């Protein structure tokens, strides 16, 4: 919070003081962006200081976060996830330089959303709230429930009826009050907003809370540090509401304004073909229109995205690309990540790789360019999807000859 200079409206460009609970521009209702005093920060903070820092995980980047350094933070180890450089995977998608895979599925509750939820919980504590609430297709909810539990806050979660079992199981174990809404994500979202207003809870709906995107941006700050501030040509991320993509863009802008990076990677935003409102708006140059939610990649099945403007701005600013992929392509990418990299991801996370595969195939991404892919969620969250991606197992009676038939019979091991 030390370096936050204000909240700037992306619509009317007025700047407002940073209150603990800020959502929309008081002037025009537009979305807000957290702004920092970059020149002061650049004088007081440097990559060398980071090298010396003993703080692990996302709080390494505290000066670039809208959180009071003295306020209590959730004790879970959020961030500090591995970055792999994988030549075999690169070759499998037609690229010659090792593919950089940032595995954020290894966060405490299994998704990148932990980075936003950790900030949400810290801000809720700052605001003196006792209860925090959100609507989510799953990961925002499970990460909120986990981070709230770790901080002894109550959580109330609205989930659409189709949320996968693994994610709902997490909510229950973390002790959240779970309200499963028989309807779409949009309907669950609206209901949560009404409840938040009525009972005065802290709002963790990411798109309209400017602080949460700041938490998510730490995935790219971390990736940049892991690469010694030399970023790849392209960086792919899957897109639902658009906050993760927008957050990636915000991280790049912050680092550029600090003078820590020279060039911005081109962002690739990937949606599912069965639910691609932001992609369509990009291709057609029109405002975003709500669409159906017809994909098994549940975490990005957002027919009425809450943050398309910031997401599209990030694509424009980095001369990036939006691309949509079919569920078949998503499952292929998911299987490939497992087989060729030993990384088990949920479908929404695999979409990012599937998008890259499509662009590499089309020659938009050239074979000698370096690419990073952000893995947003862990495969264990949705075991049902995994079975679709990976195919059958061998089922036999307990008899060694049957094993021999499999092993010696030329069947796929
Ligand atoms: C939330 C989520 C996304 C998309 O993030 P948005 O901010 O909604 O665009 C992608 N993958 C996973 C696994 C997620 O949980
Ligand atoms: Zn405004």
Number of helices: 15
Can you tell me the overall shape?
globular
Number of strand segments: 13
What is the residue-averaged pLDDT?
A: 92
Instruction: Give the strand order of the largest sheet, numbering strands 1, 2, ... along the chain.
Output: 4-5-13-10-11-12
Q: Which regions contain 5 or more consecutive residues with pLDDT less than 50?
A: none
Report strand %.
15-25%
Which ligands appear in the coordinates? pyridoxal-5'-phosphate, zinc ion
Largest sheet: 6 strands, mixed
The helix/strand series, from N terminus to C terminus, equals EEEHHEHEHEHEHEHEHEHEHHEHHEHH
- Give me the Rg, rounded: 21 Å
Structural class: alpha/beta
Q: N-to-C terminal Cα separation, in Å?
A: 55 Å
The percentage helix is 40-55%
What would a concise description of this structure say?
This protein is of the alpha/beta class. It contains 15 helices and 13 strands.
Give a verbal description of the structure.
The protein is an alpha/beta fold and 413 residues long. It has helices spanning 38-44, 47-52, 87-92, 113-126, 139-151, 165-173, 185-199, 210-226, 243-258, 277-284, 308-317, 327-341, 347-361, 383-390, 400-408, and strands at residues 4-9, 15-16, 32-36, 83-86, 99-103, 131-135, 154-160, 177-181, 202-203, 234-238, 266-272, 321-325, 371-375. The structure holds pyridoxal-5'-phosphate and zinc ion (ZN). Pyridoxal-5'-phosphate binds at residues 111, 113, 139, 238-245, 299-300, 302, 346, 348-349, 376-377.
């Amino acid at each position: 919070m030390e370096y936050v200079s204000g909240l700037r409206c992306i619509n009317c460009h007025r700047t407002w003081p940073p209150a603990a609970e800020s959502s929309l521009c008081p002037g025009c209702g537009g979305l807000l962006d957290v702004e920092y005093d970059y020149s002061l920060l650049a004088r007081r903070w440097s990559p060398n200081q980071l090298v010396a820092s003993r703080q692990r995980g996302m709080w390494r980047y505290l000066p670039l976060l809208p959180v009071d350094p003295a306020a209590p933070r959730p004790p879970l180890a959020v961030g500090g996830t591995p970055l792999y450089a994988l030549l075999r995977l690169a070759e499998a998608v037609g690229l010659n330089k090792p593919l950089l895979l940032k595995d954020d599925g290894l966060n405490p509750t299994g998704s990148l959303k932990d980075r936003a939820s950790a900030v949400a919980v810290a801000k809720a504590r700052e605001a003196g709230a006792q209860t925090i609430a959100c609507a989510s297709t799953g990961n925002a909810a499970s990460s909120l429930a986990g981070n709230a539990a770790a901080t002894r806050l109550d959580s109330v979660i609205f989930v659409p009826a189709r949320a996968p079992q693994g994610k709902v199981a997490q909510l229950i174990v973390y002790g959240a009050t779970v309200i499963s809404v028989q309807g779409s994500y949009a309907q669950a979202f609206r209901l949560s907003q009404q409840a938040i207003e009525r009972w005065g809870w802290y709002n963790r709906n990411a798109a309209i809370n400017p602080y949460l995107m700041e938490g998510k941006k730490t995935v790219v700050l971390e990736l940049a540090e892991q690469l010694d501030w030399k970023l790849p040509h392209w960086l792919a991320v899957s897109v639902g509401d658009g906050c993760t993509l927008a957050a990636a863009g915000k991280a790049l802008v912050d680092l550029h304004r600090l003078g820590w990076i020279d060039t911005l990677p081109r962002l690739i935003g990937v949606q599912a073909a069965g639910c691609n409102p932001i992609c369509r708006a990009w291709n057609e140059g029109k405002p975003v229109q709500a669409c159906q939610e017809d994909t098994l990649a549940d975490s990005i099945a957002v027919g009425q995205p809450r943050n398309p403007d910031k997401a599209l701005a990030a694509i424009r600013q980095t001369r990036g690309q939006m691309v949509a992929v079919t569920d078949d392509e998503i499952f292929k990418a998911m299987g490939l990540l497992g087989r060729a990299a030993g990384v088990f991801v949920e479908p929404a996370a695999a979409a990012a790789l599937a998008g890259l595969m499509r662009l590499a195939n089309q020659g938009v991404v050239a074979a000698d360019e370096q690419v990073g892919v952000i893995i947003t969620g862990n495969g264990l969250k949705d075991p049902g999807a995994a079975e679709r991606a990976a195919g059958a197992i061998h089922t036999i009676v307990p008899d060694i000859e049957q094993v021999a038939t499999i092993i010696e019979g030329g069947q796929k091991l």
